[in-house]
Amino acid sequence: MNIEIAIAPLIEALANYIWPFVRIGAFLMVMPLIGGSFTPVKVRLLLAVALTIAIAPLVPPAVTQDVLSVAGLVTMIQEIAIGVALGFLVQLVFDAIALGAQVIAMSMGLGFAVFLDRARGVSVPVLGQLFLMLSMLIFLSLDGHLAMIQLLVDSFRAWPIAEGGLTLPVLSELLVWTAQLFIFAMKIALPAITALLIVNLSFGIMSRAAPTLNLFAVGFPVAMLLGFVVIFLNMGALVENVTSFIELSILKISQLLEM
């Protein structure tokens, strides 16, 4: 008894899940919280498979491409680029927060107090880890992870599979958005930097008035203490800035989907 299995329909049905899986997997690779190296690869893989099973039936029908063909390779690159771009827009906000915290830590004299950031695999000041943990909690409290998944679903309607991928206007907007990194970092670090600058100028004047004063022994703890006081007093504004940054990045993604 011969058993014949139709391979072509099976491959076609599998292809309907492969392309969404590629975009979703690339998105989870750079998405805040989930994209960090502290999240096990198996967890990210299982989450990508689960989201693919849930999202694939909602994806509009696309042009069927052979996975092993040149067109299939081009489509895969396009899907990876789209997934990375979506996660990059929000991840950039967290990088800006880490950069602003690093500038504050250097000004306070805490540059030597570093901690391994497992999300990026580099050493960052402990103050940067504090700001990142706070921003991640705010991101979760705003249901940012759910909003990102919803935008991911919308991206399949705005940028269908195998239909061109990212356009030049979208890429130019992504490049412009990278400039926001320094603007966000400046807004985070400016209050503390201003206060510490005034302290350093005051100690500079004192050094002229009393040359024998050991400014290093006096100025180092004063600058550190004042830095912590400014951070504590500015915590409310910090939360507001982080909230507005996250909301602005999510809004930016929705604007790009409409282009």
Task: Compile the SSE list and pairings.
Blueprint: H1 7-30, H2 41-55, H3 70-108, E1 114-117, E2 122-125, H4 126-141, H5 144-158, H6 168-178, H7 180-209, H8 215-233, H9 235-257
Helix pairs in contact: 1-2, 1-3, 3-4, 3-7, 3-8, 3-9, 4-9, 5-9, 7-8
Shape: elongated
Q: Gyration radius, to the nearest Å?
A: 24 Å
Sheet with the most strands?
2 strands, antiparallel
* Spatial strand arrangement across the major sheet: 1-2
Tell me the count of domains. 1
The overall pLDDT average reads: 77
Q: Give the structural class.
A: mainly alpha
Low-confidence stretches: none
**What letter string, H or E per element, gives the SSE order?**
HHHEEHHHHHH
Strand content: under 5%
Span between termini: 57 Å
Number of helices: 9
- List how many beta strands DSSP finds: 2
User: What is the helical fraction, as a range of percent?
Assistant: over 70%
